[in-house]
């Protein structure tokens, strides 16, 4: 008499697991490309490292948050990915700096002077410049930014997160996000303006 409830419960768990795996597969298909662009920029085009960081983030997401909704996965995934990137950067800094294990390695520039700016609308990264530049040129320009500016820009412009969510993902203040984002936009406009053959033409 007790076998049927146990079998039913087992079937439910199996169905839930299968559903989560399908959702994760679809989620990965939708987000992997953008996540790789972000990590390749942050790791100076080290494709293998970028792939590893993204895959590790997906594994951690599935292991710890399989029961969450797909919408909840977006900020969770990028929070995990940001943490893994920071861990990798700290290991690289220690490896490249002799005796750095004697002191705390600080990689973030969130203690920069924060600008008193109103939140800027999140633009489409391919349109906000209003210039005839390619996706590859935009990605190359992004890769030249400091990592925190890269993150702020791509989380806001690529993923469409608001300031509060971006700050939670990056583990910094909203003021820092606004400052990083503002400086990223200014730097990208300056860099990509030189790539636009029409930028210096007169309107007359």
TrEMBL record:
Keywords: Sigma factor, Transcription, Transcription regulation. GO terms for biological process: DNA-templated transcription initiation. SUPFAM superfamilies: Sigma2 domain of RNA polymerase sigma factors (SSF88946), Sigma3 and sigma4 domains of RNA polymerase sigma factors (SSF88659). It comes from the Bacteria. One of its GO terms (molecular function) is DNA binding. Residues 136-188 form the RNA polymerase sigma factor 70 region 4 type domain. InterPro entries: RNA_pol_sigma-70-like, RNA_pol_sigma-70_dom, RNA_pol_sigma70_r4_t2, RNA_pol_sigma_r2, RNA_pol_sigma_r3/r4-like, WH-like_DNA-bd_sf. Belongs to the sigma-70 factor family. ECF subfamily. PANTHER family: ECF SIGMA FACTOR, RNA POLYMERASE ECF-TYPE SIGMA FACTO. This is RNA polymerase subunit sigma-70. It comes from Acinetobacter equi.
